[in-house]
TrEMBL record:
GO terms for molecular function: hydrolase activity. Keywords: Hydrolase, Signal. Residues 1-20 form the signal peptide. Its EC number is 3.1.-.-. This is SGNH/GDSL hydrolase family protein. It comes from Croceitalea vernalis. It comes from the Bacteria.
């Protein structure tokens, strides 16, 4: 820079004698024209969002103020405000703990934080009692109608927020806090606001309960009566289709435009991909002891196979063997194996996990504990097989993925039928899982539990940064469909992990 200035001075001396009238023009600074954001053919003046915990901003296994304010609908609302959007009211919890009481009795747990008390990071519930009292019903209407725990048909169920109980399952405490009346529906309260624009993301829980329970629920395909469903069941696709169609029919009746998202692959979330299939460490002496205990079981299987009652492949699959080292597979119950108990009651449906099995996140604190504290040999996952709730087998994964494909086909078809914007959340999250999501600062958001930045500590719900990526996918779909030019949000401005 100094050389440049010296050179400029030299030029000035050279030409000063030529003309006293010559002047050097001042450098012009161009001020960019301010961007004018428009809504295109949409009207964002009164935006209402419908859905479940993903819509509400649930994170770290709880609903709390910071999470609600970092929900993807609230991010959308901040963009809509640039193009005529109005206020966006949220039924905020009372604090950032996330827990809640009913009549003074705790019914909802606090959010998770990382504890380093054991030397390695471990998610634990934050201490304290949440000050949200469910019976203190909030007044007014709310733009974020996301209700944690809601399945597709719950949004149309009268009395879903009635603390006295409802025909389809128990009352939802989250909706009970802001329902306009005990016997209203989520959809009715949303439609009563006469929204000009809406978002809908529903159907995840129609599969997620099954997956999160390790496939312990029932696939209700063919059963059109949701009042008979359990919380861990997969909903019939016709029930899901009818529910979403009813929601869209109501929300678009007065000309409102909107956006709907399909469902991500719930078998690839950190809740199911974090715990390895072979998490059990054993020394040589213990491995030898355990193998001796399973010798009779393995011998009985061999006899059954010799009789032609099971294949050689199933014999190999069911034979249990441990070795000295840190990567032994867990012993589990698998109901899809051939039932041999009629021939030998001791030959229960046991096998060890393989790389094709998915252990649920919560199994990490259960495997290796004692089934009977008085018996040091009753080690869960070793001497005592893990029950169905701890592992999602390949057959159960196939069941969930079949439902997912059917649900997503319905959602995309209804988006076309009602001529609204469509977000392919499934492809988005698959991309984050497979190769990560690059940010403008060069960092990469992944699905790695705790450190990836995409998911919260419950392994199911996104982090604020994950929700920001989802919000931008919505903005892109809305801009493409309605001709708006909303800018989106910067995921870097949102944390990948709440720090207590």
């Amino acid at each position: 820079m100094k050389k440049f200035l010296s050179f400029a001075g030299f030029l000035g001396l050279l030409f000063i004698s030529c003309s006293d009238d010559d002047t050097v023009p001042e450098e012009m600074t161009m001020t960019p024209e301010p961007v004018v954001y428009t809504s295109g053919s949409a009207d964002f003046s009164n935006y209402v969002s419908l859905g479940n915990s993903l819509t509400a901003g649930f994170s770290d296994n709880a609903l709390f103020i910071d999470g609600q304010e970092n929900s993807y609908p609230n991010m959308l609302a901040s963009n809509f405000a640039l193009a005529g959007g109005g206020t966006f009211n949220i039924p905020l919890m009372a604090d950032n703990l996330g827990g809640a009481t009913l009549g003074g009795q705790p019914i909802l747990g606090n959010r998770l934080i990382l504890s380093f008390a054991t030397g390695s990071p471990l998610p634990i519930a934050v201490e304290g009692q949440g000050s949200t009292e469910i019976s203190n019903v909030l007044s007014g209407s709310f733009n974020n109608m996301g209700v944690p725990g809601a399945k597709s048909y719950h949004l149309l169920a009268p009395g879903y927020g009635n603390l006295a109980g409802v025909p389809i399952g128990a009352a939802n405490p989250y909706f009970a806090r802001f329902a306009s009346s005990p016997n209203t529906t989520v959809l009715a309260d949303a439609a009563a606001q006469n929204p000009s624009f809406f978002s809908l993301w529903i159907g995840n829980n129609d599969i997620l309960g099954y997956v999160a329970s390790g496939g312990a629920g029932t696939d209700q395909t063919g059963n059109l009566d949701p009042s008979t469903y359990g919380g861990s069941d997969i909903s019939d696709v016709n029930v899901v289709a009818g529910s979403i169609n009813g929601i869209l029919q109501t929300m678009t009746a007065n000309g409102a435009k909107g956006v709907i998202a399909n469902l991500p692959d719930v078998t690839s979330i950190p809740f199911l991909t974090t715990v390895p299939y072979n998490p059990i460490p054993l020394d040589a002496a213990t491995a030898e002891l355990v193998n001796g205990a399973y010798a009779a079981y393995n011998g009985g299987l061999a006899q059954i196979q010799a009789l032609g009652l099971i294949t050689a492949e199933e014999l190999a699959q069911r034979t249990i063997s441990f070795a000295a080292g840190a990567t032994n597979a867990a012993v589990i119950i698998d109901e899809d194996l051939t039932d041999l108990t009629a021939f030998n009651p001791a030959l229960i449906n046991m096998r060890q996990t393989t790389a094709d099995d998915l252990l649920v996140l919560t199994s990490s604190s259960f495997i290796g504990t004692l089934a009977n504290p008085a018996d040091p040999t009753s080690i869960n996952g070793v001497a005592v097989p893990l029950s169905d709730q701890w592992v999602l087998t390949p057959e159960e994964q196939a069941t969930a993925n079949t439902a997912l494909a059917a649900f997503n086909q319905v959602i995309e078809s209804l988006a076309t039928q009602y001529d609204i914007a469509f977000v392919d959340a499934n492809t988005l999250f698959n991309g984050i899982r497979d190769s990560g999501f690059p940010l403008s600062d060069g960092s990469l958001v992944t699905t790695t539990f705790g450190t990836g930045g995409g998911f919260s500590l419950d392994g199911v719900h996104p982090s604020p940064r994950g929700y920001a990526i989802l919000a931008n996918a919505h903005i892109e779909a809305i801009n493409a469909k309605y001709g708006s030019n909303l800018p989106g949000v910067n995921p870097i401005n949102f944390t990948g992990l709440y720090i207590d």
